[in-house]
Amino acid sequence: MTYIDAHCHLLDISEFKLARTAGVDSIICNAINPKDWHQVLALENVIHAIGIHPWHVSDLPENAMTDLEKLLEQNPGAHIGEIGLDKCKGDFYKQEEIFMLQLELAQKLQRPVHVHCVRAWGEMLPILKGHKDLKYLFHGFSGDKNVVRFLSDYDAYFSVNRATKIPLIPADKLLIESDAPDGLPSPANLPFLYLQLGVQSAQIEQNFQRFLNGR
Ligand SMILES: [Zn+2]
């Protein structure tokens, strides 16, 4: 059995080693602000995502967006994440501006995006209408069945680490995440989580390959 961590923030190499030993084959590691872009990109044997998280839009260096574009060009395998909107924390107006800029960059460079959305689906969905041809991973999915229906003709995947939203998510769009160290302490907990959630590792693996390589 192999396990996949569709979303985490770990920077600790010893945790990755533990995860491999536990059978976690693939890990997507997301940066949250310019300070950790280089650290994330330096990690070996993980899929990198760099971006500006909605909680970190207010204290950005002036050239953050040009730096992000340069780094993405230098790292053709890197995704864009974690980006998004969050009504519970931070300057929402600025969040929308930075989120839209990052979607435009994703469009320009043709990169998948890893999205955080908390209590902001009403604002998020109209923005996504302008970016229908991107590949999305909605992490820690918090939407309802209307959101899933809206996204049904998007190339969108949903990752969770709790059971509550799984019945809403199409089986071929489901991914599992540790969100370590904020969610689960480590991706090494994933084998137990798969069991707890009753998900099939072969199905998750197929979904993940489609997320990375296909449509
Ligand atoms: Zn996250």
CATH superfamily: Metal-dependent hydrolases
Please list the strands of the largest sheet in the order they lie side by side: 1-2-3-4-5-6-7-8
Contiguous uncertain segments of 5+ residues:
none
Summarize the amount of helix as a percent range. Answer: 25-40%
Report the bound ligands by name, code or SMILES: zinc ion
Arithmetic mean of pLDDT: 96
Number of strands: 8
Separate helix tally:
8
Question: Any guess at the CATH architecture?
Answer: Alpha-Beta Barrel
Structural class: alpha/beta
Work out the strand percent: 15-25%
Given this structure, which CATH class is correct? Alpha Beta
Distance between the termini: 24 Å
Radius of gyration: 16 Å
Q: Give a short account of the largest sheet.
A: 8 strands, parallel
Give the ordered list of helices and strands.
Answer: EHEHEHEHEHEHEEHH
The backbone outline, from C-alpha atoms, is globular
Total tally of structural domains: 1
What is the CATH topology assignment?
A: TIM Barrel
Give the helices and strands, then pairings.
Blueprint lengths: L2 E6 L4 H9 L2 E7 L3 H8 L5 E4 L13 H11 L4 E8 L5 H18 L3 E6 L2 H9 L5 E5 L5 H6 L4 E6 L13 E3 L13 H8 L3 H13 L2
Parallel strand pairs: 1-2, 2-3, 3-4, 4-5, 5-6, 6-7, 7-8
Helix pairs in contact: 3-4
The structure holds zinc ion (ZN).
The site of zinc ion has 7 residues, from loops.
